[in-house]
Amino acid sequence: MANVLKLIHMSLKSNPQSSSPPLPRSLPQQEINSYQKAIRLFWKELYATGGKAIYSQQQFGPVKPDWINIEHIFPMAWVVNALKCKDRRDCRYNKKLFNFIESDLHNLYPSRRDLNMLRASHRFGKVKGELRLFGSFDFKLDNKRRIVEPAPASQGEVARSMYHMATTYKLKIFAKQAETLAYWNKVDQPSKEEKRRNDLIEELQGTRNIFIDDPKAIERAKKRFI
Known about the structure:
This protein is mainly alpha-helical. Helix content is 46%, strand content 10%.
């Protein structure tokens, strides 16, 4: 653990946000350093009996359907930029920390492939209007402003995953998004399934998402970003 913490400190030691108020303690994972291993654990352990897609809320069974894949809630493109890599491949070979970040199961959720592709690396926020894409799926997209707004039933999970990644690995989220995510966390509290997932991830990689255990901690954590 000391080595991972040292890597975080060294990679971001010049970050001016280091003078921000103290945050709730959130530990980086150091068990899974391969995204391929994370994928295996994701399908064989975390979703062995099926589950629900993050953006569409569609249920799926133990056999993975073709329409589903894995979404990084905190985009890896943002991490690549934060660690000053050329691309994801460059980060995998030259930044040991990146492999732990990319493989953190707290940031991985099942998603429809098409919605995952539409989301890309857009930030989360409020999209004006009532446009719903893909029929009954409440997933709003503003390509011009590069914003997506998932359905209310998904917003709390999204918020807690984003805050976990940002605080654990000292990554940046902008003030307006931080405020929006904090609000989503408040109105969409952790479900039994989210808590079960948190428990199982602790067994698999040794760390918890503290914002699932204590959603009110986000109100303290957001001071770093606003």
